[in-house]
Amino acid sequence: MRKTHWCVITGAPCSGKTTVILSLERQGYRVVHEAARKAVEEGIAAGMSLREIRESPLDFQRRILQAKLTLERKLPTRATIFIDRGIPDSIAYFQFFGLDPEEPLAHARHVRYRRIFFFERLPWIRDGIRNENPETVARLDTLLQSAYQTLGYPIIRVPVLPAAARTDYVLNHL
C-alpha cells in the first residue's frame, strides 16, 4: 500500500473541480490536471471528433486509467498534491459504461490518498469536452461517491459556494 499526502478533488462533471484546481495552482500548490480532459483536448487538437475519441469506452477508460497510473508513479508520496480525479474515479467510470471495474479497483487498492474532497454539483453547463447530460451526471455522482466509500475513504463534501470560498474550504480541511 502506497500511502500518500495527495488530496483528490472529485465529483460529477460540472461540479467546479477544474476551477478550484486552477485556483490552487495559481496559489502555488502542486496540482495534477484531469487525465480525461487532457486526452480529449489532445484528440480534438489532432482533428478527431469527440465521438471518435470516445468510440470505444473500454479503450478510452483504459487509456485514462493508464495515464493516471503513469503520472501517480512519478509523484512524491510525501508532497501535498491536489489531483483532479484519482484512481477510484476510474472505478465509477468503468461501472458507468458497463465495464468490469476490477482493473481500476485492483490499482486503487495499492494507493491511499490523504483526503478526498467531493464537490457538490453546480448547475449543468455543456462545453466542447463534456458529452454527459443532467441524468448521466446524477448517476456518475452516485457512482463516484460509492467508489471512494467502497475503498473506505471518508469523504469531505465541498458545498456549492463561490469558487474562492470553495478553494478556501479545501485548504481549511487539509
TrEMBL record:
Signal peptide: none annotated. InterPro entries: NadR/Ttd14_AAA_dom, P-loop_NTPase. Pfam families: AAA_28. It comes from the Bacteria. Residues 7-159 form the NadR/Ttd14 AAA domain. SUPFAM superfamilies: P-loop containing nucleoside triphosphate hydrolases. This is NadR/Ttd14 AAA domain-containing protein. It comes from Desulfococcus multivorans DSM 2059.
